[in-house]
Amino acid sequence: MNIITEDQIRQNVRSRYKEVALQGITSSSCCSTEVNCCETSVAFDSESGKLGYSTDELSSVPVGANLGLGCGNPQAIAALKSGEVVLDLGSGGGFDCFLAAKQVGDQGKVIGVDMTPEMISKARLNAAKGGFTNTEFRLGEIENLPIPNETVNVIISNCVINLSPNKPQVFKEAYRVLNSGGRLAISDIVTTAAELPTEIKNNIEDMYSGCISGASSITELETMLKQSGFIDISIEPKDESKEFIKDWVPGANIDKYIVSAVIKARKQ
Predict the structure, then answer these.
(1) Of 2, 174, 214, 252, which residue is most buried, by most CB within 10 angstroms?
(2) pLDDT, tens digit, for every residue of 79-125?
(3) What is the pLDDT of residues 117-126, one digit of tens each?
(4) Burial class, 75, CB count within 10 angstroms (exposed 0-12 / middle 13-18 / buried 19+)
(5) Which SS3 state, helix, strand or coil, does residue 34 take?
């Protein structure tokens, strides 16, 4: 993939999520091809419940932080501890950051990085509304993190890395900013078919920005993580996620080709 194509992908993704941020509405997940839908916070909470978020978690974040984006609940698998520094790759409106912030407490810190300026503004506004003083939101690309070396304990991410046109670089950057013993706890989409259908694979406008055609296989992800230096790699597909994935693109049967997975790894 050449640089121009990578830039086109980033611009397409950035444009889509700018629209989500400005409208404050989306469809039932980040992985739908529809952006302009008449969803409400109640509908978002209902969909997020299917991803593993509890009622208490959903009610503990500022109104407007949950944009219905994601394919799992990464902070629930991260085993966060008080005082840890957490980095969220593709933090959106700050939803997972605010949940993580409650777990790490006042002695900890949560940093969200997003490449969409409108999302950063929205997250900062949500942080102010919720009185969160241990969160920080930085504009940047996850392939080039605005984070110093070895300053993070845990990296979380929710259905975002599949959107990157240069995933090996994402994992190299993740490894760079993690402390020794630091860990990844990611929810993302993986492919379950040998190859995606051409009409899905080549549809950058909708299917890529909708978290579908940019997905990698488990084998590919394992290779990327190993080459970046990670150990204790675990990628666990969640077959039950097909129940909500099938609704992302009605009639396209995409649940035959992708599934949500829990991805964990550690820096030695």
Answers:
(1) 174
(2) 999 999 999 999 999 999 999 999 999 999 999 999 999 999 999 99
(3) 999 999 999 9
(4) buried
(5) coil
Provide the β-strand partners of residue 139: 114
- What's the predicted TM-score (pTM) here? 0.89
Centroid of chain to Cα 226: 21
Helix/strand/coil for 223 = helix
Residues found in the chain: 268
CATH code assigned at 116 = 3.40.50.150
Domain of residue 165 covers 3-267
| Distance from C-alpha of 146 to C-alpha of 162, rounded to nearest angstrom | 20
Provide the number of structural domains found in the chain: 1
How far apart (Å, rounded) are the C-alpha atoms in residues 10 and 252? 24
